[in-house]
């Protein structure tokens, strides 16, 4: 059953955060008969970490993917503690809070006390210029709206408009909530993307009543017996530090990393285990190996290709999960080149503004150690599920559009010191209507394939903590399956 020199051999396909986490936990388990588990991690690219990628350029620390993780979800913090890097986590700048939203061509502060979908405080919403008088009246009528009793799935857009009104949804909820997935809110399933919204309505009848009941008066999260964290945290040296710490935590005697090794397909499981076809990207040499168990920690559409021969039905279900891409643009400036005070973490752009830029992070304000003295780092997002054409724009067009919008919104007249563009194609799973039953069918099918587990952000959450949890659960499920089927070595 995929027995190697040191014990049972298992494969992890995909070197992103979920795959690395799975490998990290798999190395800790020995075979039930005394052999040492041998883990082989295959990554098609040259580097590990997937979309977590930090670069150092001229004293600036650029994030080409996610720049932080949510602290109220424990799985990321738990992993940092296990790796011994929890003391390297830093919170968002305590001197700056909040975010701007583009409203009729100008930046306006998002009212204080907005719990993503509902106000916890009334007065900031009474005075905000973001909503018209009619929009405010409709928003404040939300407690009078009856709860929905239908069991059918509902889109994020339909949910938001039904509870809060069209204007509040378009101007506030869509850029805040829909922007997390960078998808089309008309297609996103509210049950799959924000189940807490549905729970708030179910338990409290009103989102506003639920938000006020849950208000704590602080954005800080404190784990049991541990330090208080801001809502978002990041390693001091960027998200790459988390990847590097994970890789450092892999015992080379137990975990064998194979970069530039593309797994092309999994064949049907044999009595010896899963047969895996691997191609070396540098030499083009192909080989076939057998593993007792396999963790597939790739995007769903890649997993579909791997399983096309082994289980066509499962492959088809995985292929049904849609994906979007985005363009991330880092721009470095001298501080005096930006007229805006940059007194927040950034700004978001509603779809109704009809702009190309979807959001902008003031990186050097949000976190320390992101820019040298006298420098400012801005990070902008384009594309997403509603604007896929942006991924095919030239670099010149991307920078030109971004500079034009920054001049309009932040008063940036001078060119940047440098720019760095990263295109992430088909990297963001879209939890469209019907996502939850589809995932249920996928998981039922996988349970019929002993020694195979799936991990990643395509199933139960797109955030970094979700991916870490997914990798850990995958390792636990694989170990449990192998312990049930493992036979003593002769």
Describe this structure in words.
The protein is α+β, with helices and mostly antiparallel strands. The chain folds into 3 domains: 9-50 and 240-321 and 431-485, FAD/NAD(P)-binding domain (3-Layer(bba) Sandwich); 111-214, protoporphyrinogen ix oxidase, domain 3; 323-429, Polyamine Oxidase, Chain A, domain 2 (Alpha-Beta Complex). It is 32% helix and 23% strand. The protein is built from 16 helices and 22 strands. The chain has helices spanning 17-26, 74-83, 123-127, 133-140, 156-164, 166-181, 190-193, 195-204, 207-214, 240-248, 300-306, 312-319, 363-366, 395-410, 435-447, 464-485, and strands at 9-13, 38-43, 54-57, 60-63, 69-70, 89-91, 100-103, 106-109, 221-222, 228-229, 232-235, 255-259, 261-266, 274-280, 286-291, 293-296, 323-334, 346-348, 357-362, 375-383, 418-429, 452-454. The protein is globular and about 70 Å long. 47% of the residues are buried.
Report a brief summary of the structure.
With 490 residues, the chain is an alpha+beta fold. It has helices spanning 17-26, 74-83, 123-127, 133-140, 156-164, 166-181, 190-193, 195-204, 207-214, 240-248, 300-306, 312-319, 363-366, 395-410, 435-447, 464-485; strands at residues 9-13, 38-43, 54-57, 60-63, 69-70, 89-91, 100-103, 106-109, 221-222, 228-229, 232-235, 255-259, 261-266, 274-280, 286-291, 293-296, 323-334, 346-348, 357-362, 375-383, 418-429, 452-454.
């Amino acid at each position: 059953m995929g027995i190697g020199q040191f014990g049972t051999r298992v494969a992890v396909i995909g070197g992103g955060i979920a795959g690395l986490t799975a490998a990290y936990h798999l190395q800790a388990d020995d075979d039930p008969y005394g052999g040492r588990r041998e883990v082989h991690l295959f990554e098609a690219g040259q580097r590990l970490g997937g979309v977590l990628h930090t670069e150092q350029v001229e004293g600036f620390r650029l994030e080409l993917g996610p720049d932080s993780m949510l602290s109220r979800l424990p799985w990321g913090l738990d992993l940092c503690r296990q790796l011994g890097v929890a003391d390297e986590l830093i919170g968002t700048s305590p001197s700056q809070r909040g975010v701007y939203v583009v409203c009729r061509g100008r930046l306006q502060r998002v009212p204080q006390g907005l719990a993503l979908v509902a106000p916890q405080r009334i007065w900031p919403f009474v005075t905000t210029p973001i909503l018209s008088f009619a929009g405010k009246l409709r928003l404040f009528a939300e407690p009078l709206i009856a709860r929905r009793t239908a069991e059918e799935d509902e889109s994020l857009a339909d949910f938001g408009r039904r509870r809060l009104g069209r204007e509040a949804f378009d101007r506030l909820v869509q850029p805040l909530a829909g922007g997390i997935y960078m998808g089309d809110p008309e297609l996103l399933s509210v049950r799959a993307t924000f189940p807490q919204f549905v729970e708030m309505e179910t338990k409290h009848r009103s989102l506003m009543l639920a938000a006020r009941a849950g208000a704590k008066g602080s954005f800080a999260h404190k784990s049991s017996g541990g330090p208080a964290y801001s809502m978002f945290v990041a390693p001091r040296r960027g998200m790459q530090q988390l990847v590097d710490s994970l890789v450092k935590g892999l015992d080379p005697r137990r975990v064998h990393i194979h970069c530039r090794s593309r797994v092309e397909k999994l064949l049907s499981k044999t009595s010896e285990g899963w047969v895996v076809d691997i191609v070396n990207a540098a030499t083009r040499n192909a080989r076939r190996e057998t593993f007792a168990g396999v963790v597939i920690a790739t995007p769903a559409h890649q997993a579909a290709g791997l399983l096309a021969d082994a289980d066509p039905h499962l492959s088809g279900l995985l292929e049904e999960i849609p994906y979007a891409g985005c363009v991330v643009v880092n721009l470095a400036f001298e501080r005096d080149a930006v007229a805006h005070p940059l007194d927040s973490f950034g700004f978001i752009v509603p779809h109704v503004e009809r702009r190309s830029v979807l959001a902008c992070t003031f990186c050097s304000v949000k976190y320390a150690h992101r820019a040298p003295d006298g420098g400012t780092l801005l990070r902008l997002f384009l594309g997403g599920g509603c604007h896929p054409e942006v991924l095919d724009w030239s670099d010149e067009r991307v920078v030109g559009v971004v500079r034009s919008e920054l001049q309009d919104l932040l008063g940036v007249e001078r060119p940047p010191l440098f720019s760095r563009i990263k295109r992430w194609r088909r990297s963001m799973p879209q939890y469209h209507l019907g996502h939850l039953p589809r995932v249920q069918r996928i998981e039922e099918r996988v349970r019929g394939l002993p020694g195979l587990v799936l991990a990643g952000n395509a199933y139960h959450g797109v955030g970094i903590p979700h991916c870490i949890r997914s990798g850990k659960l995958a390792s636990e499920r694989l170990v449990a399956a192998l312990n049930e089927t493992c036979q003593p070595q002769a």
